[in-house]
Structure prediction request, 92 residues.
Amino acid sequence: MKLDDVLKNTVTAVIRDNFAEGEVVDVEFESIELAEDGATITIKVVFTVDSKPDDVAEHYFGLTGKVRSALGEAWQEYFPVISPSFGREEHA
Prediction:
């Protein structure tokens, strides 16, 4: 199964809306897997370097449920695994 661009954009917007403006640098959909213990969608959220871990943790509350709702009925059997990554914005 593959997430279409519209659904990716919807999920990305849900994630970005849950955090402070400018805090999320990128949202990457790393994988969609059927594992022995269930089906997962792995999503990496890249934060700015100056993001404070306490602030990020506070905004994680309820995020999984919001992402599951945004994925809709067709994806209800999949569990979104949302992992933070603290990176650096690269400029050319």
In short: Helices lie at 5-17, 53-60, 63-71. DSSP finds three helices and three strands in the chain.
